[in-house]
Design a protein that fits this description.
Layout lengths: L5 H4 L5 E2 L7 H14 L7 H11 L3 E3 L2 E2 L15 E14 L2 E10 L6 H10 L3 H9 L3 H8 L2 H6 L9 E6 L8 H11 L5 E6 L2 E4 L3 H5 L8 E7 L3 H32 L12 E3 L1 E4 L2 E9 L13 H29 L2 H13 L3 H12 L4 H17 L4 H21 L16 E5 L4 H5 L6 E6 L7 H9 L3 E3 L13 E5 L4 E4 L3 H26 L2 E2 L5 E7 L6 H6 L5 E5 L1 H5 L7 H14 L5 E4 L27 H6 L1 H17 L4 E5 L5 H18 L6 E5 L2 H5 L1 H5 L4 E4 L1 H9 L17 H15 L4 E4 L7 H10 L3 E4 L4 H9 L3 H12 L4 H9 L3
Parallel strand pairs: 1-4, 3-5, 12-13, 13-14, 14-15, 19-20, 19-26, 20-21, 21-22, 22-23, 23-24, 24-25, 25-26
Antiparallel strand pairs: 2-3, 4-5, 6-9, 7-8, 7-9, 10-17, 11-15, 12-16, 16-17, 18-19
Helix pairs in contact: 2-3, 4-13, 8-10, 8-12, 11-12, 11-15, 13-14, 14-15, 21-23, 23-24, 29-30, 29-31
């Protein structure tokens, strides 16, 4: 049976404006009469809709109800149709629920999904929805409910939209999830409808899945077009992003190739051990003990709830997962790199896909529970991607399953799996049917020596992460690997794509000798990285690392980090479905201090708000969270969050005396500092903790401008250049159209850092920088010249920063800083590097 378009379902004769109903039954009867009069249903269909109400609530929320018949009564539907009853004064649908727009559905198949998709979007546009409740134009309701996605998918048969440009895909790997997510982020900021067309196929540029389904390859030609009042601006912004990503994609591809070449092994076993061959995914050699990771195929419970309750549960689960993915992306960026972090930002965009949410809502409307409905929707859409026969899209289906599993475990916590917990300390080679990107990113590389999977491909995000982490990996090795016994000694060669089984003693000795030679090379490199950052004339700048978990410490130390300049404790909250108690936090802080072996560790108190929200904390919704209750403001308002954390920190300080410092985020006034110090003094006395240095973040202009006053009351400052740049330049750092302008090298930002240093020096206090600027060798040189004494970077950035500073002279750094302070723009500051200033 062919599906009727949304346009065909919506007709003037099926819309009644300015209606009134005495109760829900009356409203449903009127809507049923409209459908029957139009020949869409048998006269008894209204009774079927009432019986459906008894089985499941069809109130969507925000004044919209969608009554429809039972599945077993579909025979009463003669043709697909939708009746709309506008009730300006509303009718009580259920206690506390008022319907003002009744959308009655008669559907033999899934034709109504297009309208349901638009309704889902409208629920997020309350202003437009409010106009529909009172409009006297039927055409306005029809226009609102016509489906943009379906219109775009009809592609060339409709022609291109009003404004257009031609473009050839320059990305070496084609259009994959990370650049596609940036496209979507960009156009979602505009009202215009934006379409990407290749021949007779087209995709909605506001839908990540729709774009991915095009399967665009390198060198293919597309037409990008738009309609709407801001169509030209939308296309201009999108083209800037598309072209800019082209340069980044090619750079990433070259960097990946260089990394692979650096780690390519040149080894073969002297004997002839049996092996399983797969596809080489990440180069390297490792000897380890096999450990199978079995996917738990748990049955998804189907527990129907009222539609409003199910919708709220789904919305909360999606929000929680978005925050988790944001935290994972941030953590991955700090551990591995920004490009790899884009994997999880793209995954987060999948959660905004209207097709996925609509299908879940439809399954809930049909009487299924939220978890079951979500899982079925993910499976159906992922199957559609896999069925296209494109290996890149098949890998994106795996991403959809990965992010879908995260949402599912929020909806049903009993489905959480601990398959990767409890790994032995000895080097382990993990064997799995497949491994998700989020599992791969979280692997403890001190315990995991390599990966081999039965499924997967070399272009998967799991493979990309394995390469970046330096883990030998083989994928697509077939089901035979799943029959291997745990505990066997194996050798994995990620360059040759082989897993050697039952290697002889000679094979193991040979592989060990090769690995020892590589270790000696790395050790020589590490010795250089471990040298302090001392300028040629003796000025020392401490270089620390931004890390969040104890198991990341070993890598940070191997890259030359001299301590932890920023441990972000919000990760303890973002990755859990509850607030960690004092005991859990104490364990985490002690683990970090132990891992750093007596080196200094600065722990930042909980920094929630702005772009970092935690669903289980039930924070109030704010129109502008970046200017709302975040950082110190939240801590002072929520003692149940602050005090257990301080108790755990002071106890940890007693565990490793002299190594821990505490830092508070988003400080704007002296009164906040004094209030926090008083709480610290009380908590320290209660637990018998030692005197511990207290510092504050400089992230807003107010703090930088009163640095001298603040310095009287604290021990150190740490400048967060990312937030400081955002607040100084009034640019949302998450706005993709303005991202290039949010430059921390802007002279206004540098002048505030200079003011901070002067304020600190007046009272003999020191200043560090833990924002992104600290990890840029040129930016680090400027900061050092401004008088910053500590730089905290991602571990991978530390060697280059230290090398640049060791090659400098202190007077030259001071002169560079003075010239930057006198510059008129960020571009002028950057030009100083090109001129060798």
């Amino acid at each position: 049976m062919t599906s009727t378009s949304a346009t065909g379902l919506l007709t003037h004769e099926l819309i009644r404006l300015g209606g009134a109903a005495s109760d829900k039954s009356d409203a449903i009867a009127q809507a049923g009469a409209l459908l029957a009069a139009a020949g869409c249903v048998d006269p008894g269909y209204a009774q079927s809709m009432m019986r459906r109400e008894a089985a499941a609530n069809t109130f969507l929320g925000h004044g919209v109800a969608i009554p429809h018949g039972l599945v077993e009564d579909r025979a009463m539907v003669r043709r697909n149709g939708i009746a709309i009853l506008q009730l300006p004064n509303g009718v009580e649908w259920n206690p506390g629920q008022t319907a003002r727009l009744v959308v009655a559905i008669a559907a033999q198949s899934d034709a109504h999904l297009d309208v349901l998709r638009r309704l889902t979007r409208l629920l997020q546009d309350e202003d437009r929805l409010g106009r529909l409740f009172e409009t006297d134009e039927r055409s306005e309701i029809i226009a609102a409910l016509q489906d943009e996605h379906q219109t775009a998918a009809q592609g060339a048969s409709l022609g291109d939209l009003a404004v257009a440009f031609d473009w050839v895909v320059p990305y070496p790997s084609g259009l994959h999830a990370r650049p596609a997510a940036r496209w979507v982020e960009t156009v979602r900021g505009f009202a215009a409808q934006v379409r990407v067309r290749r021949d007779a196929e087209a995709g909605d540029a506001k839908s990540l899945i729709s774009l991915l389904q095009l399967g665009l390859k390198h060198g293919e030609s597309v037409v990008v077009s738009a309609n709407g009042s801001d169509a030209e601006a939308a296309l201009a912004a999108l083209r800037r992003v598309m072209d800019g990503l082209s340069v980044q994609e090619q750079a990433d591809a070259a960097q990946a190739a260089a990394r692979a070449a650096e780690r390519a092994p040149d080894w073969s076993p002297p004997g002839a051990p049996a092996y399983i061959a797969g596809v080489a995914a990440s180069p390297g050699l490792a000897i380890g003990t096999l450990r199978k990771v079995s996917a738990v195929e748990a049955e998804i419970p189907d527990r129907p709830v009222a539609l409003t309750e199910g919708g709220a549960m789904l919305d909360a689960a999606l929000s929680t997962t978005r925050f988790q993915l944001r935290a994972l992306a941030d953590d991955t960026a700090r551990r591995v790199g920004e490009s790899e972090a884009g994997i999880f930002r793209a995954q987060s965009e999948l959660l905004n896909d209207t097709d996925l949410i609509t299908l879940t809502c439809q399954l809930m409307v049909e009487g299924h529970g939220p978890a079951w409905a979500w899982n079925a929707a993910v499976d159906r859409i992922a199957a559609g991607l896999s069925a296209l026969g494109n290996p890149v899209l098949a890998a994106r289906a795996a991403d959809l399953h990965d992010v879908g599993r995260r949402v599912l475990t929020v909806l049903e916590p009993t489905l959480k799996s601990d398959a990767l917990s409890g790994l032995p300390d000895a080097p382990t080679v993990l064997v799995a049917s497949d491994l998700s990107p989020s599992d791969t990113a979280a692997l403890n590389i001190d315990k995991v020596a390599g990966l081999i999977t039965a499924l997967g491909g070399p272009t998967s995000h799991t493979a990309i992460l394995a390469r970046t982490l330096g883990l030998p990996a083989v994928v697509a090795a077939g089901s035979a690997v799943l029959d291997l016994a745990d505990g066997a000694t194996v050798i994995i060669d990620g360059q040759a794509g082989r897993l050697y089984l039952e290697p002889s003693e000679a094979d193991v000795i040979s592989a060990s000798a090769w690995l020892e030679a590589q270790r000696e090379v790395r050790e020589r490199e590490s010795e250089v990285r471990a040298l302090p950052a001392v300028t040629r004339d003796g000025r020392r700048i401490e270089v620390a690392a931004n890390i969040n978990q104890a198991h990341q410490a070993a890598f940070a130390l191997s890259q030359g980090a001299e301590g932890v300049g920023l441990m972000r404790t919000e990760f303890l909250f973002l990755e859990a479905d509850h607030s960690p108690d004092e005991a859990e936090q104490f364990e985490a802080y002690c683990a970090m201090l132990d891992a750093m072996g007596g080196r200094p560790v600065i722990v930042r108190a909980l920094d929630i708000g702005g772009d970092k929200q935690v669903a289980h904390l039930e924070l109030p919704r704010e129109d502008n969270p970046f200017l709302g209750v975040r950082g110190a403001r939240l801590l002072l308002r929520r003692p149940e969050l602050l005090e257990p954390q301080l108790r755990a920190l002071y106890r940890a300080a007693a565990h490793r005396p002299g190594t821990l410092s505490i830092m508070f985020p988003m400080i704007t006034s002296v009164s906040e500092v004094l209030a926090l110090k008083a709480i610290c003094a009380r908590i320290r006395a209660e637990v018998g903790g030692p005197e511990t240095p207290l510092g504050v973040m400089i992230e807003v202009p107010a703090a930088a401008l009163q640095a001298e006053s603040l310095a009287r009351h604290i021990d150190f400052f740490s400048v967060g250049t990312n937030d400081l740049t955002q607040y100084v330049l009034a640019i949302d750092r998450q706005n993709p159209d303005l991202a290039a302008e949010a430059d921390a090298l802007h002279p206004a930002v540098l002048r505030l850092i200079h003011e901070t240093v002067k304020g600190a020096e007046a009272h003999g206090k020191w200043v560090g920088v833990c924002g992104g600027l600290a990890g840029d060798p040129f930016g680090a040189s400027l900061l050092a010249g401004l008088g910053v004494q500590e730089l905290s970077t991602t571990p991978r950035e530390a060697p280059a920063v230290k090398a640049r500073l060791r090659d400098a002279l202190w007077p030259d750094l001071r002169e560079l800083a003075e010239r930057a302070l006198a510059a008129e723009s960020a571009a002028d500051v950057r030009a100083l590097e090109r001129r060798g200033a």
